[in-house]
Amino acid sequence: MTGIAVCSGTVSSIKSLWETRIKKTIQDLQKQQDLKAGVGRVRHNWEDRIILAKLKEKVVTAEGRVILRIEKEEWKTLPQVLVHFPQLMEWHLHRIGLQTIPRFVSSFENLIVLDLSRNAITEIPKEIGKLTKLRELLVSYNRVQSVPGELGYCQNLEKLELAGNRDLDQLPAEISHLKKLYHLDLSLNQFTEIPESVVSLPALEWLDMGGNRLQSLPHDIHRMEKLHTMWLQRNELEFLPDNICYMPSLDTLVLSNNKLQDIPSMMEDMNNLRFVNFRDNPLTYEVKLSAAPTKSEDDEDDDREMFGRDFMRLYCQEARKRVHAMLNSHSIKRMSNKHVLEFNGRVLTSRRS
Predict the structure, then answer these.
(1) pLDDT confidence of 324, banded at 50, 70, 90?
(2) Domains of the chain: which residue ranges?
(3) pLDDT tens, residue by residue, 275-322
(4) How far apart are CA 127 and CA 202, in angstroms?
(5) Closest CA to 165 of 214, 103, 209
(6) What local confidence, expressed as pLDDT, does residue 289 receive?
(7) DSSP state of 96
(8) What GO CC terms are in its UniProt record (predicted)?
(9) How many Å apart are CA 232 and CA 228, to the nearest integer?
(10) DSSP secondary structure, 222-260, as one string
(11) Using an 8 Å Cβ cutoff, are 60 and 83 in contact?
(12) Is the predicted pLDDT of residue 195 greater than 50, yes or no?
């Protein structure tokens, strides 16, 4: 009995010893983890301070606006510490390799200009819709594939540039809610038509859709009443709708490098059209302008540009002559079995007996 008691006591002592050692080991490990975490926090704080100091060097004030300007540096992502500059009114971040627009962009309620051109951005976050004071959003030459409908909440947006975004081929219907948007650049993308949301923009004055894959223009294009400049070069347009003649404000129209075969005859009467370019189109008729008189070097408004406004009018006149000639020829054939007599200036016809 005594031996068993001793053995049992020994086991209990060993167990207690191991439990004490394990507890101490756990405590030591916890202290080490806490120490590492503390060091990490200190390091993180120092890194934040370094980044914050670096950002401060990029913040300038011009014309009463606080501007963040970074160019040709490596900033694939923007640090969270940027929120320490809530007074920023403009971001100009060019060629920095930026891959994402941070969702905390919504914290900058005073932003007026967001210029992120020539980066590697793939997405415009939905949070962009919270920037209600934003006037300019410039995201050209990135890799944006779609535009969120929330952009329609930016009621003060006046200028939107999305040129050169590879696979971009659609815009959300909510774009039509941008009542102040007057400048829109969608060039060098994959659009096959002008989106209805663009045609519905009430204040649009300047539109560039050159370098897309447009095959036709909307029949109701004349709804764009304030549009004065339209760039449509390097597309696949084969014809123009007649209603293009009823665009009252249009004064610049570039249609070079398309597949146009004809020019609507009514375009001859578009007196507000100051500049037009039909160069490099497979037009049906060949027309040439007479030699232009010598002009001074300071005269920039060359009305006799080879494929410009005078060319358009001459082409319309030539096309009208050809149509009249064809109709007359057809009429003569129909009357080949009739006699045509003139009497007191009246044309009388009688059938052959």
Answers:
(1) confident
(2) 59-289+302-334
(3) 999 999 999 998 888 765 555 544 544 545 789 999 999 999 988 888
(4) 25
(5) 209
(6) 82
(7) S
(8) cytoplasm
(9) 13
(10) GG-TT--EEE--SS------GGGGG-TT--EEE--SS--
(11) no
(12) yes
For 253-263, the pLDDT digits (tens) are 999 999 999 99
- Is residue 106 within 8 A of residue 130, CB to CB? The reply is yes
Question: Which amino acid is present at 218?
Answer: P
What is the torsion angle, in degrees rounded to the nearest 10, for the CA atoms of residue 218, residue 224, residue 229 and residue 233? Answer: -10
Look up residue 254 and give its amino acid: V
**CATH 3.40.640.10 assigned to 59-289+302-334:** no
What distance lies between CA 211 and its chain's CA centroid? 12
| The token pair that represents 19 in the structure block | 């439990």
Return the number of other C-beta atoms located less than 10 Å from residue 136's C-beta.
Answer: 17
In the chain, the amino acid numbered 332 is I
pLDDT in tens, 65-108: 999 999 999 999 999 999 999 999 999 999 999 999 999 999 99
Strands 90-94 and 206-208: unpaired
CA distance 116 to 91: 7
